[in-house]
Design a protein that fits this description.
The protein is mainly α. The chain contains five helices and no strands. The chain has helices at 11-22, 32-54, 60-69, 73-82, 87-96. α2 crosses α3 (60-69) and α2 runs parallel beside α5.
Length: 103
């Protein structure tokens, strides 16, 4: 299903997001593709965790998530890169997994 989600961002917010994605101060604004990848990562991580909570202990989904989430963040990043995910997606995915993290 394709969804159209309206998200109004100021140039300041787009610059803040670009800085966060780059990991350093940058003068450019986050692109539409970067924002889309970041939000997709956030949503997928949130949905995966929601599925893990509902799954039974012997569920393959829960076992897969438990294995993926037991690694430290660097190993998780390597797994996501191996799956073809870009840096914007990975940052969103990791941010969604940190309780109280600012997205």
């Amino acid at each position: 299903m394709i969804t159209n989600l309206r998200l109004d961002l100021t140039d300041r917010q787009r610059n803040d997001l670009a800085c966060m994605l780059a990991g350093k101060k940058v003068a450019r604004l986050a692109t539409r593709a970067e924002i889309t990848d970041y939000v997709t990562g956030l949503l997928e991580r949130s949905l995966c965790e929601s599925t893990a909570v509902r799954a039974t202990p012997e569920s393959p989904v829960r076992q897969q998530l438990a294995g993926a989430l037991s690694f430290d963040e660097q190993q998780l990043v390597e797994q996501l890169r191996a799956a073809g995910k870009n840096d914007s997606y990975i940052r969103g995915y990791i941010k969604a997994g940190r309780p109280g993290a600012r997205a």
